[in-house]
């Protein structure tokens, strides 16, 4: 048949040929992650979902590049593209021997990094949506390639409003129209609109009260943004949440039918067992909840990607990739380059670069290890900080962890010959004294503090971590914290009775059984109290090593599998307490101390910023991390990284983790009015540069900014010239500054280069909630040129054509969610499922949401409402579980004159909206109106005023 051979047919023609050749049951079978082969047509088995976030993952050894947030710190789209190309090449090599290596790759992550406490912060690129979109599109293009056929089919994830792991399947992210249009969508759309990504994955959470997997934006925005068909795949096990945890629908067939109509093409459910999913879809067909055409349309989207990948053609040349490319010298070199360019110098009082030859004390839990994260490949090798520096200097390494003993009144905890923990003999009575040098290793444990109260215990005898063994026993069998369910971390709770150990994963306390074995006690059991000896020994050993050295390098940070990872958000921004104690002790012993932070997220290192002369940050940097770090610390490479998110001083600077309205909450560098520890875009260099006079030109609907930059130092400079704009007057709240572009310059000593940044005038548009469109507002503006969002060296007026935003017509109905400000409300759907999309409907024709009061006295405001000569009545669509009242006030939500009082009858359900009318009095002309929801749980879907 024609689809099995190259022809002049279009992709659509070939897809239609396949659809006609497949039976209805075979088409249905295409809608699961694991698609069975159709041997009579020559269709092979197909699987979606190969992880490729920063290198090929979960398929054995592969080149491991820095984490995504680290790659982003390079501010270098071309570098991310090259990393994507290398990752795709290794995938094509591995898939020749491993059928699990499918060419639908689940990367990049396009969620803007709104809150640094998000457990998956390491997976994203930036808190700025434009920068996120730019870097994600570059990485996706690298994965897909430039040829007539994509090498892989990248998937942008996770759509939409997803930055919390806490209760992620049941929480709803409120995205008012401006936040949706100005902040969220610009991060997700570029990779799709440029044709670099061919697929999308919705997120686990709800958005405005509707599961993201059922979002009308999938069909109404995402599909229209892409130049061709896209494949929409669910996140793992998310479909069952629609009628399970989320309870949005009563059963599987109803939920899956809605998902199919909403645009979901591939159900990632029950791993490689599609039977239950297909059964739900068959029943949905039988009950008339979906049509065969709905199934066929999803199958077309699936087949379109498979056709474009060349699955039905003779194997293209680019698939003839030998396995030797995996971790080849070129990719190792690229890993080193990426790690080097991601390193970011946060502070430097002249200590760096270190001058060799030196005797360096390398200290810290991360000083001699390179850690994998959940989405890493298996490291083929790893160069640690100690190893990298040891290639150039004399190095002494001290981990700085406390080596402790655990005792009860009945004996000391020891490692048995079988690897299990038990009490052995009488207690040694060491109390808080450190164990001696000649202590029996079987009773000694290294205590590692990974923050958030989570500690790991590692046996000094066999080097393995305490883990949960069969029968609730504790044994030293794990190489470290890891796996999906991390069972190797414990809380240490101190009291007058001693220290109690509690497994973080289950909350169960460690007990000593009658036979002396250490076990996890039953849920609710008290647990055993232990005396701990050796606390503080790590800091003391670290200080001694630092005192012997010319300089000390303390490598601190997080474990990617603990306290900040998928399924777990952070609760604070603190450096782990034990790691900070080591840092302070080292600095006291040797003032020439550099702090290296290795983490997937920012820390509030306020003490370090005030006392430590040099601070460097990197994400977990992959296999070449140590060499890259040594190159930067020793001045063999210029620090090139720049922060892509704000580093705050305290959690008090952040709104609630679930507050997604960045505009109303004053979040991210765009709206944060405080003083950050390190601002967005921050990063220092060793060379000194000076900026000249900035010039701004507006021509052909483009703004071009040029500024000369002179290297006044004696070494080559790496400078990232950042261009922001600020609108100084508006009818709505505007960002303090917005990144519009940047230029990365490499400037030789004594030379001057011209940084040129250009962007379209349309980038200056704001979302007009009155007209439901983007508008370049008629307003004064400035261009800000600088080294970061806070370090501005030049400000130049910017004059571009704009238009005034017209007042809201009070006599044309508007959706309640199109407000200008709000207090105490949440957004919710008016109906479970919006109506079908009209083919000629504008892209902006997205159904509005209702506003529902969280508390009594909640309100929303609508500025510049034109009442003309006055209004006769107010009509609102309202819903409440019990009789309630809605007020329309003039000018102020508390003291403003009451124009109307609307009685709302009790409804039968959350979607039972009733039109209620009431007279209006006492206002005319253009004014600001406040809709006050007097009673909690009251909702309003739309409102309109009637003319007299």
TrEMBL record:
Keywords carried by this UniProt record: Glycosidase, Hydrolase, Signal
SUPFAM superfamilies assigned: (Trans)glycosidases (SSF51445), Beta-D-glucan exohydrolase, C-terminal domain (SSF52279), Galactose-binding domain-like (SSF49785)
Pfam families registered for this protein in UniProt: CBM_6, Fn3-like, Glyco_hydro_3, Glyco_hydro_3_C
Domain Cellulose binding type IV stretches: 807-947
GO MF term set: beta-glucosidase activity
Enzyme nomenclature, EC number: 3.2.1.21
Domain Fibronectin type III-like: 719-789
Enzyme class: hydrolase
UniProt-listed PANTHER family: BETA-D-XYLOSIDASE 5-RELATED, SUGAR HYDROLASE-RELATED
Similarity field: Belongs to the glycosyl hydrolase 3 family.
The protein's name in its UniProt record: Beta-glucosidase
The species this protein was found in: Nocardiopsis terrae
């Amino acid at each position: 048949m024609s689809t099995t051979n190259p022809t002049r047919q279009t992709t659509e023609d070939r897809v239609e040929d396949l659809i006609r050749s497949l039976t209805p049951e075979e088409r249905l079978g295409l809608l699961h992650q694991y698609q069975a082969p159709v041997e009579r047509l020559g269709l092979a088995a197909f699987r979606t979902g190969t992880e490729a976030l920063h290198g090929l993952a979960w398929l054995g050894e592969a080149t491991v590049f820095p984490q995504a947030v680290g790659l982003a710190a390079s501010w270098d789209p071309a570098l991310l593209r090259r990393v994507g190309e290398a990752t795709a090449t290794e995938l094509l090599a591995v898939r020749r021997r491993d059928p699990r290596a499918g060419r639908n790759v689940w990367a990049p992550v396009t969620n803007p990094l709104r809150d640094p406490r998000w457990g998956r912060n390491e997976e994203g690129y930036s808190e700025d949506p434009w920068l996120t979109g730019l870097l994600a599109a570059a990485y996706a293009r690298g994965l897909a390639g430039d040829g007539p056929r994509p090498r892989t089919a990248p998937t942008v994830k996770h759509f939409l409003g997803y930055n919390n792991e806490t209760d992620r399947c049941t929480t709803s992210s409120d995205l008012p129209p401006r936040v949706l249009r100005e902040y969220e969508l610009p991060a997700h759309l570029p990779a799709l609109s440029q044709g670099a990504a061919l697929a999308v994955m919705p997120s686990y959470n709800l958005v405005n009260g509707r599961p993201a997997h059922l979002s009308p934006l999938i069909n109404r925005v995402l599909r229209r943004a892409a130049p061709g068909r896209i494949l929409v795949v669910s996140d793992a096990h998310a479909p069952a949440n629609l009628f399970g945890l989320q309870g949005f629908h009563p059963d599987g067939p109803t939920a899956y039918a809605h998902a199919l109509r909403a645009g979901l093409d591939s159900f990632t459910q029950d791993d490689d067992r599609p039977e239950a999913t297909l059964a739900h879809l068959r029943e949905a067909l039988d009950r008339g909840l979906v049509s065969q055409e709905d199934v066929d349309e999803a199958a077309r989207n699936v087949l379109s990607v498979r056709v474009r990948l060349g699955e039905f053609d003779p194997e293209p040349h680019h698939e003839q990739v030998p396995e030797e490319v995996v971790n080849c010298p070129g990719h190792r070199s690229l890993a080193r380059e990426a790690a080097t360019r991601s390193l970011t110098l946060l502070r430097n009082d002249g200590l760096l670069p270190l001058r060799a030859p030196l005797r360096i004390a390398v200290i810290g839990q991360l000083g001699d290890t390179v850690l994998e994260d959940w989405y890493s490949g298996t490291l083929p090798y790893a160069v640690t900080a100690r190893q990298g520096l040891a290639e150039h200097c004399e190095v002494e390494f001290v981990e700085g962890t406390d080596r402790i003993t655990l005792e009860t009144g009945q004996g000391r905890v020891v490692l048995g010959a079988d690897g299990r923990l038990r009490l052995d003999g009488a207690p040694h009575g060491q109390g808080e004294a450190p164990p001696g040098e000649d202590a029996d290793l079987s009773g000694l444990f290294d205590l590692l503090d990974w923050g958030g109260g989570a500690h790991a215990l590692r046996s000094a005898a066999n080097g393995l971590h305490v883990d949960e063994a069969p029968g609730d026993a504790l044994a030293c069998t794990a190489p470290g914290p890891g796996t999906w369910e991390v069972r190797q971390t414990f809380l240490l709770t101190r009291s007058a009775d001693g220290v109690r150990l509690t497994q973080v994963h289950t909350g169960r306390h460690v007990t000593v059984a009658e036979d002396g074995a250490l076990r996890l006690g039953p849920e609710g059991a008290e647990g055993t109290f232990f005396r701990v000896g050796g606390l503080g020994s790590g800091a003391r050993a670290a200080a001694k090593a630092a005192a012997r050295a010319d300089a000390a390098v303390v490598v601190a940070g997080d474990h990617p599998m603990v306290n900040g990872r998928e399924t777990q958000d952070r609760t604070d921004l603190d450096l782990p307490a034990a790691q900070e104690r080591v840092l302070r002790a080292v600095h006291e012993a040797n003032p020439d101390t550099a702090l290296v932070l290795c983490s997937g997220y920012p820390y509030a290192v306020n003490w370090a910023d005030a006392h430590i002369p040099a601070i460097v940050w990197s994400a977990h940097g992959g296999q070449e991390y140590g060499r890259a770090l040594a190159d930067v610390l020793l001045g063999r490479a210029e620090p090139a990284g720049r922060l892509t998110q704000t580093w705050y001083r305290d959690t008090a600077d952040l709104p609630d983790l679930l507050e997604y309205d960045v505009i109303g909450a004053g979040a991210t560098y765009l709206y944060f009015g405080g003083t950050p520890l390190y601002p967005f875009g921050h990063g220092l260099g060793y060379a000194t540069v000076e900026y000249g006079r900035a010039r701004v030109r507006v021509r052909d609907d483009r703004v071009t900014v040029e500024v000369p930059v002179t290297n006044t130092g004696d070494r080559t400079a790496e400078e990232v010239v950042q261009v922001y704009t600020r609108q100084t007057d508006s009818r709505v709240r505007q960002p303090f500054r917005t990144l519009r572009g940047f230029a990365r310059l490499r400037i030789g000593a004594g030379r001057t280069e011209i940084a040129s940044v250009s962007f379209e005038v349309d980038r200056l548009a704001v979302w007009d909630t009155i007209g439901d469109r983007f508008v370049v507002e008629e307003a004064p503006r400035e261009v800000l040129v600088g080294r970061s969002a806070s370090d501005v060296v030049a400000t130049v007026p910017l004059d571009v054509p704009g238009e005034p935003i017209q007042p809201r017509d009070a006599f044309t109905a508007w959706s309640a969610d199109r407000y200008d400000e709000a207090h105490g409300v949440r957004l919710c759907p008016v109906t479970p499922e919006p109506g079908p999309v009209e083919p000629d409907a504008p892209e902006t024709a997205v159904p509005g949401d209702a506003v529902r009061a969280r508390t009594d006295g909640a309100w929303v405001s609508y500025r510049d409402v034109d009442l003309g000569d006055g209004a006769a009545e107010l009509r609102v669509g309202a819903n409440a579980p019990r009789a309630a009242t809605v007020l329309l006030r003039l000018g102020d939500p508390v003291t403003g004159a009451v124009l109307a009082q609307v009685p709302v009858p009790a409804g039968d359900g959350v979607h039972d909206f009733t039109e209620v009318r009431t007279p209006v009095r006492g206002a005319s002309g253009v004014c600001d109106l406040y809709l006050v929801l007097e009673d909690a749980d009251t909702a309003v879907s739309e409102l309109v005023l009637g003319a007299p």
